[in-house]
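In this section we walk through a basic example: taking a raw amino acid sequence and producing a predicted 3D structure, encoded as discrete structure tokens. The instruction is simple. Fold the sequence below.
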Amino acid sequence: MYDSLFPTSLVGSYPQPDWLIDREKLRSKGPPRVRDTSLWKMAEADLAEAQDAATRLAILDQEEIGLDIVTDGEVRRESYSNHLATSLDGLDLENPGTKTGRSGRPMVVPRVVGPIQRRAPVMEREAVFLRKHSKRRTKMTLPGPFTMTMQALNEHYEDDAALAMAYADMLREEIADIFAAGVDIVQLDEPYMQAEPEAARAFAIPAINRALQGAAGQTVIHMCFGYAYIMDQAKPQGYSFLRELEECTADELSIEVAQPGLDLSLIEGMKKGFLIGALDLGRETAETPEEVRDRLIAAAERIPAANIVAAPDCGMKYLPVDLTRAKLSALVEGAAMGRSLHT
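The resulting token sequence is shown next.
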């Protein structure tokens, strides 16, 4: 699957520069589910150009640090999910709904009032841009069908399972466009499977498999406990929904290991590839390369080393840029140290 052991990758996001987005406001509000244009510091007429410039910088940073797999840093997004979720037909965005988020607090969400459909490709331009500006392996991320369903108020479909399938049909088209643009890996972000395990058992896997049907490249499912840098509660030490993902068609699973101190017996014997979270994003200092190495080696005692990608626990959107660079440098060095022990 990869040219060498322990390739390195972001999970998805990279910090947006202070000149582009109001980072204090971003942190104070939490991830928006509908659009929040007040977060951007640029006038609308200049925003796309500024986002392109910031994306190029994020790509360059990843390459200079030495990551093997490069993303666009999700720089153009206010959150990992709302960029795509608010670009579809079938929504009343002028009169959004409210649901309880996985933190237990109310969140404003898109209200589904008609068939979920694309009016045009949403992520194709971003995929072309990423492929043009990096010669390394590339990855694009999208919110998954289950999480999008949990982040919407359904007033059109018979039930949430039907809504998830509609999102899956839309995602299948997006994924095809992204692979056609030359991107190597597509990742679906599905944190709500951990937060809503019973609903996930009811319909998450069929929806994911429908979204990935016919995928022309490598695919990943990311599942996390939430952004560590802005959370005010401890994380569980185990997943409530994980082994079930052996039944999905994705090639790899991306999980948190470092901050929750995950009991790696949870992945013992699983056949999927894994992005192993080797960076604790709630910690305000950089890991040492030795800490990263030890986490990767511990994972390699449970699953084949060839099935492991070294990554942060989650997206790095909320971290200071200097801390992000220091942590990712440790990731690259630690992965190299781990590689030397297996060759």
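Looking at the output, two observations stand out. The chain is about 35% helix and 20% strand. The CA atoms of residues 210 and 306 lie 27 Å apart. In the next section we compare this with other chains.
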